[in-house]
Design a protein that fits this description.
The structure holds 2 protein chains of 2 kinds. Chain A is of the alpha+beta class. Helices cover about 30% and strands about 35% of the residues of chain A. The relative contact order of chain A is 0.18. Classes of the chains: A alpha+beta, B mainly alpha.
Chain lengths: ~180, ~270
């Protein structure tokens, strides 16, 4: 019984401390720190919003060849999926040649809002050759759908113009053929 | 010395316009010659209907929709002009009507220029057909006038260069179908940069391709003027590139006009 209690206690301790240990391990090797002043972004589809970020060398050694980029994840209920960054004009990477210890560099991305929904944007930075990226705080992004639906306006033109062009061009031909045959 | 030169220039313009008028009236009074105009209207109808009624496509910004419609208009213009220009001289040769045309008291330069004007007239009709669509898609914005103006100017330059190039090839070739195929191949090559992804378009390869393709210049300029709302100054490099294309294609057509023969093949 004592043995069982000891095993259960050990499991409980591991369950509580495990994630904390993992989080510490995750962050311990990073020489870069990514911050952003923006806490929330919002806009209407079709508009642009700017996602600013500050990349800091938190180590005591210079960091070279830094690549900063953004990640965008859709968190709309029932549609949780990564987003094609190229559509959102967010695929551009920002490069920083070198950062001295304690120095920072600003980067920003102009995101084109494509589809209505809820998203989360992260700014990331990674040193070339490193396998671990520094991830900034999550920035919620709300996009209001803007639909240019106009079936009432488009239908008369979409149907009318081909009919008019056809009548204007084929009408004289038809009349000419008819008069020739008579 | 200057008087005869003035007379010659005047007669060149008159003769080329006479040829152009004849070509346009022949084209208008033929079902085959008018069918492309209806097809162009149908393509524009389909695209604008999709843009304004499809739930996914309607999410696009209005300026983006306008850019698609204006690019499509110029693309249709270049395509139609390529097909018509391919038949211009090589078609006459195939139908054995070139001999009688060459026997008329019209210089070969004026003859070829008239063919080019006639083909460019088809573009003006396509532009006129596209105007209601541009009005409709740009409704509620202040983009109607720039969209119409830039589509007309950029499209006319691109189409003029392409028609001069294709009529020039038509002067040298013996088969109208061969020239039409060559024109389509050139059009696909010109439009290919649009198939490149954004990243590839920004690479050195994409930059060179875009710089060399007149159609890419039209699209870049329309994008800059309509979507990014940039002024005339930003369009000058694109306009200069298109003007250079027109000059080069015109020079080629002028050289090819001197070599027009009944047999073809240069």
């Amino acid at each position: 019984m004592k043995r069982k209690i000891a095993v259960l206690l050990a499991l409980a301790v591991f369950a509580v401390a495990g994630p904390a240990l993992a989080q510490t391990a995750n962050g311990s090797g990073n020489q870069l720190k990514v911050e952003t002043k923006t806490t929330r972004l919002s806009g209407t589809a079709g508009q642009y919003v700017t996602m600013p970020a500050k990349i800091t060398n938190a180590s005591d050694k210079p960091v070279n060849d830094i690549v900063a980029y953004v990640t965008l994840v859709e968190v709309t209920k029932g549609q949780k999926a990564p987003v094609d960054l190229e559509d959102w004009s967010a695929h551009r990477a920002v490069t920083v040649g070198s950062l001295a210890p304690g120095r920072s560099s600003d980067a920003s991305w102009r995101l084109r809002l494509i589809k209505g929904g809820d998203y989360v944007v992260y700014a990331n930075a990674i040193e070339r050759g490193s396998s671990r990226a520094a991830v900034g705080p999550e920035v919620p992004l709300t996009v209001t759908a803007h639909k240019n639906l106009n079936p009432g306006g488009v239908l008369p033109v979409a149907l009318g113009v081909p009919v008019l062009v056809g009548a204007a061009l084929f009408g004289p031909i038809f009349v000419r053929h008819r008069s020739l045959s008579e | 010395m200057s008087a005869p030169a003035t007379v010659e220039r005047g007669s060149f313009a008159r003769d080329s316009l006479r040829i152009a008028r004849k070509e346009v009236s022949e084209s208008v009074y033929a079902v085959r010659g008018s069918m492309w105009a209806v097809l162009a209207a149908l393509v524009l109808s389909l695209m604008s209907y999709l843009l304004l009624t499809d739930k996914e496509l309607s999410l696009l910004d209005q300026s983006e929709m306008l850019y698609i419609i204006t690019s499509l208009t110029v693309g249709l213009g270049v395509l139609v002009v390529g097909i018509l220009a391919g038949d211009a001289v090589a078609g006459e040769r195939e139908r054995a009507t070139l001999e009688s045309l060459l026997l008329t008291p019209i210089g070969r330069g004026a003859l070829v220029a008239g063919k080019v004007w006639a083909v460019i007239a088809a573009w003006f009709l396509i532009f006129a057909i596209s105007a209601p669509y541009i009005f409709m898609v740009s409704a509620g914005t202040d983009l109607t006038a720039p969209a119409l103006l830039y589509t007309f100017v950029l499209g006319t330059l691109c189409v003029a260069g392409f028609s001069a190039l294709t009529v020039g090839i038509s002067c040298l070739a013996s088969s109208g179908r061969g020239v039409t195929l060559a024109a389509l191949a050139i059009f696909i090559a010109m439009a290919a940069p649009t198939l490149l992804g954004t990243v590839l378009q920004k690479s050195w390869f994409g930059a060179i391709y875009n710089a060399l393709s007149p159609f890419a210049q039209v699209r870049l300029s329309l994008d800059s003027a309509i979507v990014d709302n940039e002024g005339l100054l930003m369009q000058l490099p694109h306009l200069a590139a298109l003007a250079a294309f027109v000059a080069l294609a015109g020079a080629f057509a002028a050289i090819a006009a001197r070599r027009v023969s009944l047999e073809g093949g240069g």
